[in-house]
Amino acid sequence: MTTADGVSMAVDADTSPMTRGKAHARATEHAEAALARNPGMPLDLDRVDAVQVNRSAVERRAATIPTRRTVKKEWQAAWLLRAITCIDLTTLSGDDTPGTVRRLCAKARQPLRADLVESLGVGSLPLHTGAVCVYHNLVPVAVEALAGTDIPVAAVSTGFPAGQNPFLLKLEEIRASVAAGAREIDIVISRAHVLTGNWRALYDEVRAFREACGDAHMKTILAVGELGTLRNVARASWVCMMAGADFIKTSTGKEMVNATLPNSLVMVRAIREYEEATGYRVGFKPAGGIRTAKQSLDWLILMKEELGDAWLNADLFRLGASSLLNDIERQIEYFVSGRYSAGYHHPMA
Q1: Which residues contact 94 (CB under 8 A, 6 or more apart)?
Q2: Residue 229 sits in a domain of what CATH number?
Q3: Which residues are catalytic?
């Protein structure tokens, strides 16, 4: 599919008003589609079957990301502030309480200490995390704690993390979370559909989840560490986007292997190809094991190099994390003061 920039170049070379008009209409349509929510498309099994992944090439490319690019000083501080705005601040523990969630929401509202914000001169910026992610039973607590802000509450659903609940129960869980005020739903797929190559079943499942979400945006968790191969990761990414996923997400954070740069690279390239084929942009969320500020920069660099600046915002990129924000705050304090503080100097993230 020709990009808007490519169409503009073709128009400049053509003097026909009719051709210019048609090209402008195509460019406008493409731009509007890029901003619109992904509606999905019919399942194209030929495209899914044609997906191939060169594992060696993927691993070589992924290995260059932490070594070829670096940002320092004020540029690093700026990138870390951007990372904060893309964090899905998460608590998904068996000992979660309403108090834990309220503290998390307070941190989401004010992710940096007031003295650091003042030192950086960013008090006028709308600095907050991308979302707060909790279990369904704590959605009302988070909604109440975030009232008056535009920070969405995300609920994990569909039998998170294993996805082994009955199908109808999964649908009811989604609807209940939406009714409770969740504006985003993180669903998990049935890994068996991928491992057995039952792409129709996966498509129908995710499509039904999308319909149950209604206006709430759906982030589809692939659980890449349990899919066996990078090719399965790529094919599952395509099927979920065809079914209408607003985001594709690497992991629940509970698997043995979670977000890595190789499987993330495979997923973001599927996103790029999907936009080229349909004009619609799908978001990406790595989750699980991202704990340091340096790691967050690696994923921001990945997004910028593979997908461009449009994906460097919370509308199209999220970092699923619980402890990451603490390390980012420590790194920013180092930039401001020239020394590292102890971790316990920072409120719980």
Answers
A1: none
A2: 3.20.20.70
A3: 186, 249, 285
